[in-house]
Design a protein that fits this description.
The complex is a heterodimer of chains A (about 375) and B (about 425).
Chain A lengths: L4 H10 L3 E5 L6 H6 L2 E5 L11 H4 L8 H12 L7 E5 L3 H16 L6 E4 L12 H19 L5 H27 L4 H11 L4 H12 L16 E7 L5 H9 L2 E8 L3 H4 L9 H10 L14 H12 L3 E7 L3 H16 L3 E7 L11 H14 L1
Parallel strand pairs in A: 1-2, 1-3, 3-4, 5-6, 5-7, 7-8
Helix pairs in contact in A: 4-5, 6-12, 7-9, 8-9
Chain B lengths: L12 H22 L3 E5 L14 E4 L1 H10 L3 H10 L8 H11 L15 E5 L5 H13 L3 E4 L10 H22 L5 H23 L10 H6 L2 H5 L4 H19 L10 E6 L7 H9 L3 E6 H4 L18 H7 L10 H14 L4 E6 L4 H4 L2 H11 L4 E5 L10 H20 L1
Parallel strand pairs in B: 1-2, 1-3, 3-4, 5-6, 5-7, 7-8
Helix pairs in contact in B: 1-10, 2-4, 3-4, 6-13, 7-10, 14-16
The chains are: A alpha/beta (about 375), B alpha/beta (about 425).
The complex binds iron/sulfur cluster (2 copies).
One iron/sulfur cluster binds next to α4 and α5 of chain A.
């Protein structure tokens, strides 16, 4: 990834903004924004920390790279760029991180306010968790007000909601350009990545300029039609070298079921001035993700929908090593796709893959050949 | 060390009774299922007492069944079946064993698997991935899956969370009523909770024999003796079994019969039991005069987060009690609470050293262990060691390197004593 996250955060600080570092995956961004905080989602930090020396002292080596990079980033960033941290119960690893990070900071003589919220994971058809959830959001608002000396206003919330809706629409439009072959997946993924560390106004600018072709050149206009389209599915987009290997093998990424990309922007809740009602809608209507436990049954349908929309001929599952949520679903999804004659490939990205990803090249080439021969 | 010290290798009455309780429970489960009972598969922490509130609802616990497979030496065989279906070796080994066993109808299982369920009930308090695991069955078997969502505790459980859990228990009861056509009887559930609670009181007394020096028990005994919690909770057999176990242990202590009579090192275990190594590990340690006398895994039963003391049932609202104890196991609560209970018990049991079993299969148990180890060793001065052991997949265990580390721990203890 090309962006310098630290520089971006430094600029935000210079502009006098308060930055809230949010643990992945789907924090209530609009609320933070409406309360004069700039939420940044702490994923895709692979290129932003030199190594994981500090986090390796705190986390077992069978923890996923997302958690290890996040921990490293927060602990090694000692220039006070972050004003606080936010997390919700996204996964078993993340729920244990707050105290680990707290201890790590303490050791370095630092501390950061850490705000935690429980997002109900019950199936809506079985238990009505709306009252519980609204209460959580209500307490979150109060805690933010107390900790950061900010205040909530309905008008500002609606304004933030509208802006984020606009951003999500722009992201979908940019994704459509990828599907049409008018924008490379790499540039698209980089732009979205930059958005996670930008103000909402800056996100709008990044995306508009991307869509208008100012920064996203047409990558393979000449042979688009001869390339087989694939969908990438996983937590994060694979490293650049893997994307390059996919594209140079004669394939083209035409869509994604990636947590930090499509799964994050696909959901467009109804505009509401009540954050409880808005986020209830946001989480329950969310694009399926293995970490949102109640969305499991919608997963296959959403993947098939994506295949249809993009005309892809195969799916590449990008497994984040040690992310059990993703791995539990792969065999079922692979089987479902296979039953429909859709080819799949599974690749695994481990923390060691920072340096070498060429191991995947031959499998990607073989997969491309398979798609060609099946055409 | 007392003079009148004897050891005894024969199977105790409680050992024989345990085999009977477990054998009967599985046979009963299969028989009732064959006669048309409503079958539920539940996660370990789902309060089984609720099912006893129904006339004809039976339950099986896939985690417990997986542990049994591992203890009987077929864990790897079952894991490999799941791996052939595409399930990664990095996934929890309980899940792989269970998925493997279900894939061929329980062919190699010591209990012939579990009878086909009508409903799956998982919860995410120990781990959320268990919900993903039960989802695998939900899709393959095609039965509904009820998810109980238990908020993680960084601090003692909050009332708002308890109410939320109770609401879900009520929804679960309603779901079973609708699906099975049976009526729930709260009095029966209350009686079941009372039985469990009485059994737990005996259990706690049984564990307290670890305070004796030499210890009256090993943690390995207690691991094995956990089985009735998974197959017979809420029943009178449950109470009888733990009474027998405790009385017999007391008798043995009185008579000076100890599992490691020449006990030189009193150790403590942190993580799930290494099911495939119980005999080897206890025997290997005993040769050095070392005994693992206690474990977080067994001590947390019947408590609430942050303490290993008994949290007794007061005879009141059964759902309230079940909800209050939902975070008692180690995984559903945070590092500070874990540290608090461990520190207290280490002092109480006069522990010389701690074995942190880093378990790749169970990240929720293991992920905080590096900090936990620092806390216990650097802050409280208790020597410790980190070993690698998967609780149910023997392929991810090396006896040689484990014992090298365990011996290093004993040396650390000696060095501390000499200092
Ligand atoms: S990649 Fe998976 S395991 Fe890692 S933080 Fe994300 S959801 Fe959790
Ligand atoms: S990961 Fe741990 S808590 Fe979860 S099912 Fe496996 S052994 Fe149990």
């Amino acid at each position: 990834m090309k962006i310098d996250i630290t520089k971006k955060l430094e600029q935000l600080k210079k502009d006098g903004r308060k930055i809230l570092g949010c643990f992945p995956l789907y924090p209530p961004l609009e609320l933070f924004y409406a309360m004069d905080l700039v939420p940044v989602v702490l994923w895709g930090l692979r290129g932003s920390v030199p190594d994981t020396a500090e986090s390796d002292r705190l986390l077992q080596n069978y923890t996923c790279s997302v958690a290890r990079h996040l921990t490293e980033f927060v602990l090694s960033e000692d220039s006070g760029l972050l004003d606080g941290l936010f997390m919700y119960n996204a996964c078993d690893t993340l729920r244990n991180l707050p105290e680990i990070i707290e201890k790590g900071l303490e050791k370095n003589g630092r501390s950061l306010p850490l705000i935690k919220v429980h997002i109900p994971m019950v199936l809506p058809a079985q238990t009505d968790a709306s009252a519980y959830f609204k209460n959580e959001i209500h307490h979150l608002v109060k805690e933010l007000e107390e900790r950061f000396d900010v205040s909530f206003s309905k008008d500002k919330f609606v304004e933030a909601v509208k802006k984020f809706k606009h951003v999500r629409n722009l992201m979908v439009r940019a994704e459509n350009r990828v599907t049409q072959g008018r924008l490379s997946f790499l540039n698209f993924a980089d732009a979205i990545h930059e958005c996670w560390f930008s103000t909402v106004e800056e996100q709008i600018r990044i995306l508009e300029s991307l869509i208008e072709g100012l920064s996203g050149e047409v990558e393979f206009s000449t042979d688009n039609n001869t390339r087989h389209g694939v969908i990438l599915s996983g937590i994060l987009p694979p490293p650049t070298s893997v994307i390059n290997a996919i594209e140079s093998s004669g394939l083209r990424v035409v869509g994604n079921d990636i947590a930090s990309l499509g799964r994050s922007y696909a959901c467009m809740p109804e505009i509401s001035e009540d954050p409880g009602a808005y986020f209830l809608d946001f989480y329950y209507q969310h694009f399926p993700c293995p970490t949102l436990l109640y969305t499991g049954d919608r997963r296959t349908t959403s993947l098939f929908g994506l295949m249809e929309k993009t005309g892809a001929s195969g799916v590449i599952f990008v497994g984040e090593k040690f992310c059990e949520y993703e791995y539990f679903e792969f065999p079922h999804l692979v089987q479902q796709l296979k039953d429909k004659g859709i080819q799949t490939l599974e690749i695994e990205i481990a923390i060691e893959d920072d340096a070498q990803t060429s191991a995947h090249d031959s499998r990607i080439s073989a997969f491309a050949e398979l798609l060609k021969s099946n055409a | 060390m007392p003079e009148k010290v004897k050891t005894e290798k024969v199977k105790t009455s409680a050992g024989r009774h345990l085999s009977k309780v477990v054998g009967d429970a599985y046979m009963d489960l299969h028989a009732k299922a064959a006669q048309g009972a409503f079958v539920v598969w539940i996660a370990i922490n789902v309060p089984a007492e609720l099912f006893l509130g129904f006339e004809n609802v039976v339950y099986g616990v896939p985690e417990s069944h997986a542990a049994l497979n591992a203890a009987k030496g077929v864990g790897v065989l079952q894991c490999e079946k799941a791996e052939r279906l595409g399930y990664s070796m990095d996934l929890c080994s309980y899940a792989r064993i269970d998925i493997g066993s279900v894939s061929d109808g329980g062919k190699d299982s010591p209990t012939f698997g579990l009878p086909k369920p009508h409903l799956l009930v998982s919860d995410n308090n120990n781990c959320s991935l268990l919900v993903k695991w039960f989802d695998v069955h939900h899709r393959r078997i095609g039965v509904p899956h009820f998810v109980i969502d238990v908020p993680f505790c960084y601090e003692p459980q909050k009332e708002k969370d308890r109410k939320y859990i109770i609401q879900q228990f009520k929804d679960l009861i309603r779901t079973i009523e609708e699906m099975s056509g049976q009526k729930f009887d709260m009095d029966k559930a209350l009686a079941a909770v009372s039985n469990t609670s009485e059994g737990i009181r005996h259990w706690k007394r049984f564990l307290s024999f670890a305070e004796h020096q030499p210890s009256g028990i090993t943690a390995f005994d207690s691991f094995v003796q956990m089985a009735p919690f998974l197959v017979a909770r809420g029943t009178s057999q449950f109470v009888d079994h733990y009474k027998l176990l405790t009385d017999e242990t007391e008798q043995r202590v009185t008579e000076g019969i100890f599992p490691v009579p020449d006990e030189k090192y009193r150790l403590f275990w942190d993580n799930i039991a290494p099911w495939h190594q119980l005999r080897n590990m206890s025997g290997g340690l005993a040769k050095f005069g070392a005994n693992i006398v206690g474990a977080t895994y067994t001590l947390c039963i019947g408590t609430v987060e942050g303490s290993f003391d008994l949290f007794d049932y007061d005879g009141g609202d059964a759902l309230e009690y079940c909800a209050r104890t939902q975070n008692c196991y180690i995984c559903p609560h945070g590092m500070k609470l874990r540290g608090k209970s461990m520190q207290t018990v280490v002092e109480k049991l006069n522990i010389d050293g701690i074995v942190f079993a880093s378990n790749r299969s169970c990240k929720p148990y293991s992920v905080t262990q590096l900090d936990q180890q620092k806390l216990m060793t650097d802050q409280f001065g208790v020597p410790s060691v980190m070993i690698d052991v998967d609780h149910a997949d023997a392929r991810k265990y090396s006896e040689e390197s484990t014992f090298t580390r365990l011996e290093a721990l004993l040396e650390q203890i000696e060095a501390k004593r000499a200092a």
